[in-house]
Structures are given as C-alpha cells and as structure tokens.
Amino acid sequence: MKVAREGLRFILPAAGLAVLFAILGIGLLALLSFLFACAFTFFFRDPDRVPPAGEHLLVSPADGEVLGVDPIDAPPGIEGPAVKVTIFLSLYDVHIVRAPLAATVASVDYRPGKFVPAYKPEAGEHNESTTLALKGGRVDAIMKMIVGVAARRIKTFVLPGQAVTRGQKVGLMFFGSRVELTLPARVAIKAGLHDKVKAGETVIGEVQP
User: Fold this and answer.
1) Closest listed residue to residue 34, CA positions, set 49, 7, 12, 52
2) How far is it, in rounded angstroms, from Cα 207 to Cα 196?
C-alpha cells in the first residue's frame, strides 16, 4: 500500500514502539503500538487515481460524502451566480485533496480559526482553512480545505502561479475534515446529496458550452 510521506512521522514511531515493546516482552503495549501503526498507514494511504477522459468534466477534489449542493452568491473570483458543493471526509476516507480541473493556482489563502466538527454547516465559515483560487481555461473554481475537531493541520502542495492538472494532488488534511468547492452555476453538477465520491475519479460537474 502506497502512503503519503507526510504520514511517516506517525507510522514509523508507532511501528518502532511496537518492535521495542515486543523485544521487552510487553505484549499489550506492543499490540497497541502495532494497531496504531496500522491505523496511521490506513489513514495516510495514497492510492493512484485516473481522471475520466474529457477536459470538460470536473472531478471530485476529495473522497467522502456530499453534504450539500447549494446555490450561493458568487464570491470574488467567480462570475455570476455560483454553486457550492460540500464534501465531508470521515477518518475512513483518503485525505489527499486533488485539483478538480486543469488550472493555474491564482492564490493560496490560509486562515486560522476554530475546530468545530467538520460536518456542521458553521465549520465552513469559522474553522481553520486553506482556500485555493483556481483559474481554468474553461471555468474558474474556488476550493476550500477545512479542518475539524480531529483534523488540526492542512498541508498544501502547491504555490500561487503554479499550473496543476486535473486530478493532481494539491493538499493533505490530517484526520477528518471537509472540502467546499465553489463553481459558476453554469457548471452542471453531477453529484447528489449523500453521494460517495472519490478524489480525482468521480465526476462532480460538467462545463456547459
């Protein structure tokens, strides 16, 4: 199983303790440490993803459950009316975040905040987050990575001015979180409420001519 290298600082100490406690003959602690190492390995897994053919198709930025597909007033960077797709990531989901479309990263905006449970609506407004503004050839998008109670850190892999491909890894959220993707309303949303989606593979929207 391929894992994100950011997870090694959790996996290796737990595995090392498991070996140490096993050598010392402390079976229970060895077992607990081994289980923690397995849990961290599972959480930080980094499976390969292949986006579907068609540059007019937008892919999900995250694994998880769609909590909302809501029309909203257009934020800065989005023309006309907009729609926000909210995805909740449980501890069982892959936490690698991917670009929903081929684009240039216009900005990376980190904001400190609270740690309200990520499934609650107010988490999007008050929690610690990092927002990426994406300028695409066909359509622009705003993607907000939000941490929750367990998640306390967001690792961003891209910088302003960097070009990204559809499905490229752009971030990692640690231990349960939420992603909000804002698109122009002219994008036909293909994901419905409570759908399970996969980052980089599930079609979440289609750009209309």
Assistant:
1) 12
2) 21
d(CA 91, CA 88): 10
Q: Any idea what the Cα angle at residue 1 is, between residues 57 and 6, rounded to 5°?
A: 80
Residue 176: predicted pLDDT: 67
Q: H helices of 47-140, where?
A: 123-126
- pLDDT tens digit sequence for 4-46: 888 888 899 999 999 999 999 898 999 999 999 999 899 889 9
* pTM score, whole prediction: 0.89
Give the C-alpha separation, 14 to 37, whole Å: 5
177 is catalytic: yes
Specify the pLDDT at position 123: 66
| List of residues 6+ apart from 24 with CB closer than 8 A | none
In the beta sheet, which residues pair with residue 206? Answer: 57, 188
Residue closest to 203 by CA, chosen among 24, 8, 55: 55
